[in-house]
Amino acid sequence: MRDGGTSSTVRKRADARRNEQTLLDAAAAVFVARGVDAPVRAIAAAAGVGMGTIYRHFPTRADLVIGVYRHQIDALVSTAAHLLAESESPAAALAQWMDGFVDFLVTKHGLAGALRSEEASFDTLHAYFLDRLVPACASLLDAATAAGETRSDVDALTLMHAAGNLCIGVEGGGDAASDAHRMVGLLIAGMRLPAVG
Amino acid sequence: MRDGGTSSTVRKRADARRNEQTLLDAAAAVFVARGVDAPVRAIAAAAGVGMGTIYRHFPTRADLVIGVYRHQIDALVSTAAHLLAESESPAAALAQWMDGFVDFLVTKHGLAGALRSEEASFDTLHAYFLDRLVPACASLLDAATAAGETRSDVDALTLMHAAGNLCIGVEGGGDAASDAHRMVGLLIAGMRLPAVG
DNA sequence: TCACAAACGGAACATCGCTCCGTATAGTGA
DNA sequence: TCACTATACGGAGCGATGTTCCGTTTGTGA
User: Fold this and answer.
1) CATH assignment of A60-191, given 3.40.50.1010, 3.30.70.360, 3.40.50.720, 1.10.357.10?
2) Is the pLDDT of residue B8 over 80?
3) Which of A3, A132, A179, B195 is 20 to 30 A from B134 (CA-CA)?
């Protein structure tokens, strides 16, 4: 289990705990203003700390990104079960959940792109997303497949990759965002099997 | 019309013409080996020329990329008409053409990613792709829509963007390439309308 | 042959991610 | 209250990269 920063295994110094929170807040603000790819220096400046401080708390920028969006990712994971229980069909639940995933990505400048970055430092981010979100997606996809609603030759990982890619370069809530939603919708529509009377 | 380098409006010096070709050849080789994002220095070194020479011939890296792939892009454009004439249906032609587009992107390390890059220097590349390929795609899509085979609420630009994005991060002919083909296939499947008796 | 425009090469500048180490300070036991 | 030490901080510095700039070299026409 990853240490979320509030763990008590080793109590950190008070200034360290304060700085970690300051950094998360500053990073969140900078990510909104300048995107997830904002220079580390800019985040350090916004938080009023030095470069060394950032890298001690968050060894790579990916760790900082995870720290900022952890709660939202976890929330996305937890909606999967609710949707499955409440939707009229597993396929509908899957479609709704993917829509939520797209919403999340589309409102974070550059996050979808960072997920696909080949930079080694983003491996952690990639891994975190996959660890958390793929199982959630798989639970919905498996249910839809078991119900005979969708084809079974596309796995959750591939589907998530595709949906993530379709969000690359989209920012804000404009036409591009609506296009991303529609394209992911088409993708899922393409997976549906005709109901067998 | 963009000057392809062989125009005769102003005859360039012999060494300049030679270097332009040397650069294109070297760039093609480096792109294969290290991807479209290879450092400019690496291309200059491979061509045995200085940095200044690269930038005089190709003001941005995008221009170099265009120079290297121009022929293949043009070929892709010209297949659209053939496919439309020879396929059994416009929708089938569209699907085949998109497959060719995916093939092209998937065999060029990082090209799909560069197309989505927000770097200003890639604008030229973006524009060239759109200028050439979107009309070709539109001709097929329009035909399919007119035949009542596909829905009419997705335009060629959006479709190309989506297909391009689905190829990001894919390299070589492995599983990822096959996934890209399948995902684009699903997208187009999602656009199909049921035949009306 | 000669002069000059054209073209070349690569040093230099700006920006970025990340590391390193000297300095400052929070927490603790006397 | 006061040292003392582990902890944390700050920012200069390194290596890599895209791009510009300018002194030097070279093709070419007269």
Assistant:
1) 1.10.357.10
2) no
3) B195
